[in-house]
Amino acid sequence: MIYYRIQKNNLGVTLDRAKRYGSMRGQELIESVAKVAGRAFTPSLSTSENPVSVTPTRKLISQWEKDGENLEKIQAELNRLSKCLAQVSGEDEIICSQLMKAKVSSEEEERLLQEHMRLLTEKDAIVRRTEYFNVLEQLREVEDKISNLQHELGSASVIDQVDKTEDDKKRIDRMMDDLVALVNKKDRLSQKLISHEAEDEEIDERDRLTLEAAANFSRGSEQPLSASK
């Protein structure tokens, strides 16, 4: 019996290049695809009553997984953030223009500086939120492609061995290569979102300190921290 090896390491999922996935029998192919994708095929694609499950079902769902459930909502949020950024940037331009005309060390200058720092912090938050939803959008698109490939490979798995042509085998091999590339891309995007969540608390604290510095700012004694750094 020939063993087809699928490995997952620090570099992601890899296939054994010496093996032909196109030559696998139906159930072997189904199990291999399930291992690569990290979850079993749906019952409609598998002839087995006990499809392969590679990873246990998780009960806890992170915030980014909830946010990424609906692609239309992601795109709507990106549109909203784009409008918000344009509005805040416009307000900041006006404040900066007024600062240029304000009397040095005046109450008006202090007020405008505080407003400028507040708007910088708000812009940073919008940009960061936009980056977050951009990654979510990419992740959702990758997941859809993975799902489509799984269905295609599921259909290919029902081709009888005696009817399988060399072109069929090559097509299956190509689809497996594509599946591995997509799964590795999904892993990278997921890691970005995990890191984003981990950094949120630190950035919130930084923004709080930035606004405090702006509120206590007085020319010649203290310089405000830039929220954009």
From TrEMBL:
Keywords assigned by UniProt? Coiled coil
- Residue ranges annotated as coiled coil are 132-199
Keyword Glycoprotein on entry = no
Pfam families cross-referenced by the UniProt entry: bMERB_dom (PF12130)
Q: Which residues form the BMERB domain?
A: 60-209
Listed InterPro entries: bMERB_dom, F-actin_Monoox_Mical
> Mind telling me what this protein is named?
BMERB domain-containing protein
Organism of origin is Onchocerca flexuosa
